[in-house]
Design goal:
This protein is an alpha+beta fold and 191 residues long. The chain contains eight helices and eight strands; from the N terminus they run ββααβαβαβααβαβαβ.
Length: 191
């Protein structure tokens, strides 16, 4: 006795004898379906395999990579982008000219910008609207407006902090910030 199975949801019309598994494997369409199913089951299992260890690696040397210790702050990234002559060194004059050009893209001829315009400026030039410096720290006269002079004064303080050589210019190395490991390591309890 033959049983006809139809799988309309998948668009397959299969016909195979009942209780004869060898006969099922003889149907070329069924072999394709079984091969596809086996492949789909094997892919996730293969993706979970651990990469082979390097020759000579020990359990001690196979630790996960440590936390990042070097970061590039958004203000430092902006300062680095102000290198007008591409010598990998930024002077205060290059910084001021760059800040003026970037400020003018938002101010559009106005002498100052509001906090929302500053957020647009920060998103474009610092990478995110919510990064340091915040508009509140830049607006030193608390008039809810940011002038080019206030922006330049804020970035001058960043420039002074990064200029570890105290030579009036900053290099890429000076713009990098070294961080120590976090005080709490994920997965470990605090004492």
């Amino acid at each position: 006795m033959h049983v006809h199975a139809i799988a309309p949801a998948y668009g397959f019309g299969l016909s195979f004898p009942r209780c004869q598994p060898d006969a099922v494997l003889k149907d070329p369409r069924m072999r394709e379906i079984l091969a596809l199913a086996a492949l789909l089951l094997a892919v996730p299992a293969g993706a979970q395999q651990v990469a082979p260890a390097l020759p000579g690696a020990t359990a001690q040397s196979a630790r996960p990579q440590p936390f990042a210790t070097i970061v590039f702050e958004p203000a430092a990234m902006m300062i680095a982008a102000c290198d007008a002559n591409f010598d990998a060194v930024v002077t205060r004059d290059e910084l001021h000219a760059c800040l003026k050009r970037s400020f003018d893209t938002v101010a559009k001829g106005r002498p100052d910008i509001g906090y929302i315009d500053y957020s647009d400026w920060a998103k474009t030039w610092l990478g995110d609207a919510n990064v340091v410096p915040s508009p509140y720290s830049i607006d030193t006269d608390d008039d809810n407006r940011i002038t080019l002079a206030e922006l330049q004064a804020t970035f001058d303080s960043f420039f002074d902090r990064y200029d570890t050589g105290r030579n009036g210019s900053v290099t890429r190395a000076e713009l990098l910030t070294l961080r120590t490991a976090p005080s709490v390591i994920p997965g470990k309890k605090k004492r």
